[in-house]
Design brief:
Layout: H1 3-9, H2 12-21, E1 30-34, H3 59-68, E2 74-78, H4 88-99, E3 103-108, H5 113-122, E4 129-134, H6 139-146, H7 151-165, E5 171-179, H8 184-195, E6 201-206, H9 238-251, H10 257-274, E7 283-284, E8 294-297, E9 302-306, E10 309-315, H11 321-325, H12 328-339, H13 346-355, E11 364-365
Length: 380
């Protein structure tokens, strides 16, 4: 049996992973749909709330697009704040009907408690739903980061109600903490203690300094320009980082196996980039699956390249998915992806690690690294 025969006979997931590693094009297997950029928070690390919701796809247009997409392993609905759309439950039902995902994920700031509870209680139960509520610290810190005096009260009320019904509603409930500055280390500890009685999983991500997706400018490229580049939003000392990584590493043991492997992979890559002198045996840097296994759709139907490059390959309002996905512009942007030195945003890294099998057997990079402090990337 040749290696081509092996690829063709492998089960769906493994077959596509092997095809990608061989350099072949594949259909997307995971969707990140930003349903709106509108937001009811004023976060210090994001400009989404400054963006207009004008031009968002209607429910009818979303259904037309979803009908054209292949079956997905995972569908992620995000924003902005996705629950500011009063038809989000309908969007979930359409995703389930047309893409039959194995699971769905919704990220929320937790402000709109009634809408969130209503969706969780009424949605189709044939697949698990992960609800990730953002809490970036205890009350005053969280309110400051989210730019709202009601942020903490609203989010914790939502968490408490969802925690009571998570088994009945088939929810995977978790808190996501964005670490924006050195206070995040102590805030991480306090949040862990607060959430323990509720039995809610707690995880953390590092805020990076700039994103093309959540930027007032469109069609821009702010991706890393050199291997290993990761510039944080806030300032951290070496001791801050080591203390934070130690806390997170300790808590990984409490996670389910699948979540533990993914978070450990992400944590290792962050540590390698922010504490490069401690990196041993090479760095995690999976081949990117943007515009291959991972499809992104913006609120107006645009299909961007990735989180850090909003140059689009077209608009699904105007062009059928099949034509857009196979277009010359799509191939041009895939060439850009192949040449990208690699980012370390969790929403990009984990699909890449999964669909290249790097999560199972990391392909270590051994390039020469410039360990001097990196300056923030300037947006043109």
């Amino acid at each position: 049996m040749t290696w081509i025969d092996a690829i063709q006979r492998a089960p769906g997931f493994l077959r596509d992973a092997l095809r990608y590693r061989a350099g072949w094009s594949i259909q997307p297997r995971t969707l990140t749909h930003t349903v709106t950029f509108r937001c009811n928070a004023r976060c210090i690390m994001c400009d989404s709330w400054k963006m207009s919701g004008k031009g968002d796809l209607s429910l009818e247009e979303i259904e037309s697009i979803y009908r054209q997409l292949p079956r997905m392993d995972a569908v992620r609905l995000t924003g902005g704040e996705p629950f500011v759309r009063n038809d989000l439950l309908d969007i979930v039902a359409l995703a389930h009907q047309h893409m039959s995902p194995l699971g769905m994920h919704i990220t929320t700031n937790g402000f709109l408690t009634d809408r969130i509870v209503d969706l969780c209680s009424k949605r189709p139960r044939s697949f698990p739903l992960q609800i990730m509520v953002s809490l970036d610290g205890m009350q005053d810190k969280h309110n400051h980061i989210r730019g709202s005096s009601i942020a903490w009260t609203s989010a914790t009320k939502t968490l408490e109600l969802l925690a009571q019904h998570r088994r009945q509603w088939r929810l995977d409930l978790a808190v996501n903490q964005t670490i924006v500055d050195s206070e995040g280390v102590e805030q991480y500890r306090q949040l862990r203690e607060f959430l323990a009685p509720l039995g809610i999983r707690h995880q953390a991500v590092m805020a990076y300094d700039v994103s093309a997706t959540y930027n007032m400018e469109r069609e821009i490229d702010v991706a890393p320009k050199q291997f290993g580049q990761f510039t944080t939003l806030g300032d951290f000392s070496r001791d801050d980082l080591k203390a934070l990584f130690a806390e997170i590493e300790h808590d990984l043991q409490r996670l389910p196996r699948w979540a533990r492997a993914a978070k450990r992979y992400y944590l290792e890559g962050i540590r390698q980039r922010l504490l490069p002198s401690d990196a041993e045996g090479g760095w995690n840097n999976p081949a990117c699956v943007a515009l291959r296994a991972h499809l992104r759709i913006f609120p107006n139907g645009d299909v961007p390249t990735c989180q850090f490059n909003t140059k689009t390959i077209g608009n699904l309002r105007e062009t059928p998915f099949k034509d857009l996905w196979g277009s010359l512009k799509a191939e041009t942007q895939r060439d850009w992806v192949r040449n990208c030195p690699g980012c370390w945003a969790e929403c990009e890294v984990l699909p890449s690690a999964i669909y290249t099998l790097d999560l199972v057997r990391p392909r270590k990079e051994h390039r020469h690294l410039d360990t001097k402090p990196l300056q923030p990337v300037e947006v043109a």
